[in-house]
Amino acid sequence: MTVHLVKMAVGVSSVEHLQNMQEKCLADNNGILRHFTRNQPKRFHELLDGGSIFWIIKGYIRVKQRICGFDEIFDRNKKRRCIISLDPKLVRVEMLAHKPIQGWRYMEDNFAPAAINSEYAACIDGFPDTMVNELKSLGLL
């Protein structure tokens, strides 16, 4: 059964900002996008079955990335670290309010926000978050 991770995009102000940061990482790492974390998720087998990281940006889950793999390294202090390999493609999703978290949380597939098409994403990009939520609550989006 597929499961996903929810994680804060710390210091990121928008989806475009995350994309720019990751493009720099891709250039610096020979086209490989890696995210470093302290521990390997215990449910990594389920994550590898089509799981994604859903990024929280400015209080909302806004985008996801497919998880491609896991690896372990030891840092210069000889502490074990987990590397999460990610697909570089960012997929916009329906905005979902989410409180700040430390680390990650698991999210079952049936609770994952749906992907949105690029035309819809472009339409709502300039709107304030409160307006998007209000329009959604009124059934206009």
- Secondary structure: number of strands: 7
Task: Classify the beta-strand content into a percent band.
Answer: 35-45%
Largest sheet: 7 strands, mixed
Separation of the first and last Cα atoms:
31 Å
Q: What is the helix/strand order? A: EHEHEEEEEHH
Please tell me the total number of domains.
1
> What class do helices, strands and sheet pairing give?
alpha+beta
Task: Tell me what you see in this structure.
This protein is α+β, with helices and mostly antiparallel strands and 141 residues long. The protein has one domain (3-137). The chain has four helices and seven strands; from the N terminus they run E-H-E-H-E-E-E-E-E-H-H. Strands 1, 2, 3, 4, 5, 6 and 7 form a seven-stranded mixed sheet that branches. The longest helix has 14 residues, at 15-28. The protein is globular, with a radius of gyration of 16 Å.
Question: How is the topology of this model organized?
Answer:
Blueprint: E1 3-8, H1 15-28, E2 33-37, H2 44-47, E3 52-57, E4 60-74, E5 80-86, E6 91-97, E7 104-108, H3 118-124, H4 129-137
Parallel strand pairs: 1-3
Antiparallel strand pairs: 1-7, 2-5, 3-4, 4-5, 4-6
